[in-house]
Design goal:
Chain lengths: 171, 311
């Protein structure tokens, strides 16, 4: 009886990474009024994908990354459904082979790698958008979003690490 | 007699187990490329502008509206906090500016009262009948799209509140955009500065017709101006209302810069700080033909909306 309960609880906890991804998507849509002329909410979902691919890729499968991208695109109102999925899958695929090695490094290195990953991911999204609309898309909003995203990464990392330690690590 | 049958059964179940195990491995290996292909296919379908994708978007927004609504309270608290902090830096200047504004507005209030009285007299004299009932709904913004690539807001009013495609979205300051998608209890407003936004406007005292086109930046462009149109910076821009759905003369913005052929407009409304939106309509939207209003569609309409260039 007790054995079965432990297994069920572990099953529920195994959904944590994807759940944080969903919360991240909702956060990135919340109408926060960042002061300044350009509205660019940080790409919280990207932070979640990066963190969990590094630490628990088994609990954040490709299908999860795909579904998360789909949710983000559906709620965002972008006509290009599937673009975020593609970006998340690409980030995951690029990070999987080196993930465990990066995860073991000190935080500044993890942050630096995130800077690279976020810059590449957002640049890719910007390029795809230009291609799909066949019109020049100004880079300033994307650059601003990349900066805000990278700046807020330490906070997201701290929260996710606390969650992981509290919920997923068995003593 | 039973023995060979049982043996055969066990053999079959063994091979079945082997098949499921190897197929699982194959499935795992194929998962990523399959999902990548699926993503690409969705993007292509999105470009083809399928109504199915629009319906999926609307259904998701409607379904998740309560959750998004729950986030507005803490989000509002946070943004109030940030505004408070920002305000502390500019307190004195803000105060001076507000006093000057107040004095000016009191003067305008008197002018407006006088004009309203005059208007009423003249209407009575000429027997003028206004075009149709203006109809407006107030709605709260429950989601702001991610920002860098799409500029639209989701509001918590939908078809059941009378919202329909093509209606204008306003704040107290001016026009913010047009309703592009409507669900049961949510609606998506495409903001002025979105890539796919095209709004017919009139410019300046000459009421020169043009189209306000977003390009993802903070200041949208004026398109389809004739080559030597008398447009200068500071000209006021208001809605044209030519196609009969958008109420005319709603404030949109001012001409901010003219650089050769490129005319940029500074919108009156603060598009990055939307809390409550008023959705307004002349009451004729039932007659709006499909295709006049772009949804957040992947194809920017090749020609200006009906009526914008009528002489």
């Amino acid at each position: 009886m007790r054995f079965a309960l432990q297994r069920d609880v572990a099953l529920i906890y195994s959904w944590l990474p994807l759940a944080t991804g969903v919360v991240a998507v909702f956060l990135s849509l919340a109408p926060l009024h960042v002061p300044g002329p350009v509205v660019a909410t940080p790409a919280f979902a990207l932070m979640a994908v990066y963190y969990w691919t590094l630490h628990r890729p088994d609990l954040f499968p490709a299908s999860g990354a795909f579904a998360l991208g789909l949710l983000l695109d559906l709620l965002d109102g972008t006509p290009y459904l599937g673009l975020s999925s593609l970006v998340f899958l690409a980030v995951r695929a690029a990070l999987l082979p080196v993930g465990s090695r990066i995860a073991g490094q000190s935080f500044p290195i993890v942050w630096a790698f995130f800077l690279v990953a976020a810059a590449l991911a957002l640049a890719f999204e910007w390029l795809m958008l230009g291609l799909l609309t066949l019109a020049p898309v100004g880079p300033r909003p994307v650059i601003f979003q990349a900066l805000v995203t990278v700046a807020l990464f330490p906070l997201a990392f701290y929260l996710l690490a606390r969650l992981q330690r509290a919920v997923l690590v068995r003593p | 007699m039973i023995f060979p049958g049982v043996l055969a059964l066990r053999e079959r179940s063994d091979s079945a187990i082997r098949i499921t195990a190897s197929s699982r491995v194959i499935a795992q290996r194929l998962a990523v490329p399959f999902l990548v292909v699926a993503s690409l296919m969705l993007i292509v379908l999105g470009k083809a502008d399928l109504i199915l994708i629009e319906r999926a978007r609307i259904a998701t927004a409607d379904a998740l509206a309560p959750v998004l609504g729950m986030l507005t309270a803490p989000a509002a608290a946070i943004s109030e906090g940030m505004r408070h902090v920002e305000g502390l830096f500019t307190l004195y200047d803000e105060n001076q500016r507000l006093r000057a504004d107040n004095a000016r507005l009191m003067q305008w209030q008197n002018v407006a009262r006088r004009l309203a009285a005059e208007n009423a007299e003249l209407r009575a004299l000429t027997g003028y009948r206004p075009r149709g009932a203006n109809f407006s709904i107030s709605a709260q913004v429950i989601a702001n799209s991610g920002g860098a690539f799409a500029h639209n807001v989701l509001v918590d009013a939908g078809a059941r509140d009378g919202v329909a495609r093509g209606q204008a979205g306003l704040t107290g300051e001016g026009l913010i955009g047009r309703v592009a998608e409507v669900g049961g209890r949510t609606a998506r407003i495409l903001l002025l500065n979105d890539l796919n936004s095209r709004i017919p406007v009139v410019v300046g005292d000459a009421r020169q017709r043009a189209v306000l086109a977003g390009d993802n930046s903070a200041q949208p462009l004026l398109l389809f101006l004739p080559p030597h149109a008398p447009v200068k910076t500071g000209d006021r821009i208001v809605t044209g209302g030519a196609e009969g759905v958008f109420p005319p003369d709603l404030p949109v913005g001012v001409v901010a810069s003219i650089d050769g052929d490129t005319v940029r407009v500074a919108p009156d409304a603060a598009l990055s700080r939307l809390d409550y939106v008023r959705i307004v309509d002349l009451g004729l939207s039932a007659f709006l033909p499909q295709g006049v209003v772009p949804a957040p569609s992947s194809r920017a309409p090749a020609k200006a909306p009906v009526g914008a260039l009528a002489p």
